[in-house]
Design goal:
The protein is of the alpha+beta class. It contains 14 helices and seven strands. The chain folds into two domains: 146 residues, DNA polymerase, domain 1 (Orthogonal Bundle), CATH 1.10.150; 155 residues, Intergrase catalytic core (hpI Integrase, Chain A), CATH 1.10.443.10. Helix content is 46%, strand content 11%. A hairpin with a 5-residue loop joins strand 1 and strand 2. Helix 7 crosses helix 11 and helix 11 runs antiparallel to helix 12. It is globular, with a radius of gyration of 28 Å. The chain starts with a strand and ends in a 27-residue tail after the last helix.
């Protein structure tokens, strides 16, 4: 294996990992420079060739990986599974949480369900929402599954099921959107205005938007202008049609190498905190920039009633993720009622005639039973 660069969540190189295997035994060591890492690997291979020991080496046995530590597990998964994916930053952040919770040198084979329960309780006491806790456990579960599949771990412990309440959906009203855009215009935040409008009209995740380049926008023969998203959360490319407003936002910024890569989490927060203060929502934890995505979904479902369309537009991996918006489309029930009523009126002798379902109770005398 080649020497690999190790990155922090900001994409900065923190160290170099020398990692190689000899006769089923894996040897790994971190260094501050690539030159030192390569030198160590060459020296180590030479010592092993002549049966000499290597002092201070980190090894991972192939057979069931009984010596693999929490840090070694996440180093492996971050490099081989999550690297280059949108969830890399979350995975990196969560790995440090589990290293602190269990100890970075703690063997993954010794992690128990009780330890995971304790981690969940600590998260709750820290004020984490159920959805946040569930996301953290998903990172640990994914990492352990990866190790089980490759015989680094015999089996993973049972994970507690975290119930996420189907809370009230929050999205921007038209009036709120107009007020936000007016404030941004007043403050001269033209670039953020374009970004905000783009996000509302496309439903992109912020991290997806940051990877869009001008040539990803093209003209489709049927849909008009669309954007092809290649860097998505689930790794599957999707195409999103552009509204007139989204197209204008694109044209205002098409000279940039990336349309929206300037808008990191920190820069979004800096502007959004001002928006929250202006709107009198500074203490409202639900009034977040990510509501642009929920707003897009809510408008699609209220206009069309189509759950699959929401799934396609927003790139949900499963239909269950889109079903949360179903409550916003009460006219679906009306459509169902009309469909059933129409079926009763079909000219088919096998279908019961509607006249048999008329309310005859008003014609019954007192004391008579209604069949």
């Amino acid at each position: 294996m080649a020497v690999r660069k190790q990155y922090n969540k900001r994409g900065q190189i923190t160290s170099y990992l020398a990692d190689f295997m000899v006769k089923g035994e894996r040897y790994r060591q971190y260094f501050s420079s690539e030159k030192e890492a390569n030198q160590w690997e060459d020296d180590s291979r030479g010592r092993l060739k002549y049966g000499l020991e290597i002092e201070g080496v980190k090894t991972v046995t192939k057979a069931l990986g009984t010596n693999m530590t929490v840090r070694e597990m996440f180093d492996l998964v971050l490099e081989r599974k999550w690297k280059g994916l949108p969830n890399y930053e979350n995975g990196f952040s969560h790995s440090k949480m589990f290293e602190n919770a269990f100890g970075h040198n703690f063997r993954i084979a010794n992690i128990t369900t009780i330890m995971i329960d304790d981690f969940v309780e600590d998260c709750r006491h820290s004020g984490n929402a159920p959805a946040t806790i569930k996301l953290k456990l998903a990172s640990l579960s994914t990492a352990m599954n990866y190790c089980v599949e490759r015989d680094y771990l015999l089996k993973k412990p049972t994970f507690p099921k975290i119930k996420v309440k189907n809370e009230r959906l929050v999205f921007f009203s038209k009036e709120e959107e107009i007020e936000i855009l007016s404030y941004l215009e007043e403050k001269g935040e033209d670039y953020f205005t374009d970004f905000f409008s783009w996000q509302v009209d496309t439903g992109c995740r912020p991290i997806e938007a940051r990877h869009i380049q001008p040539h990803h926008v093209r003209k489709d023969t049927q849909l008009g202008y669309v954007v092809d998203l290649f860097h998505t959360k689930n790794g599957e490319q999707r195409t999103v049609p552009l509204t007139r407003r989204a197209l204008l936002a694109y044209k205002n910024n098409q000279h940039k190498e990336y349309l929206w890569d300037y808008w990191t989490k920190e820069r979004i927060r800096a502007v959004w905190d001002k928006v929250r203060e202006h709107m009198g929502r500074s203490s409202d934890k639900n009034f977040v920039f990510y509501l642009t995505r929920h707003t897009c979904a809510s408008r699609i479902i209220q206009a069309t009633g189509s759950i699959p369309l929401v799934q396609q537009m927003l790139g949900h991996k499963t239909i269950d993720q889109s079903l949360r918006y179903a409550k916003l489309a009460p006219h679906n029930l009306r459509q169902a009622l009309c469909a059933l009523d129409n079926a009763l009126e079909l000219p088919d002798k096998n279908v019961t005639n509607m006249s048999e379902y008329t309310d005859n109770s008003v014609n019954k005398k007192e004391g008579e039973k209604t069949a």
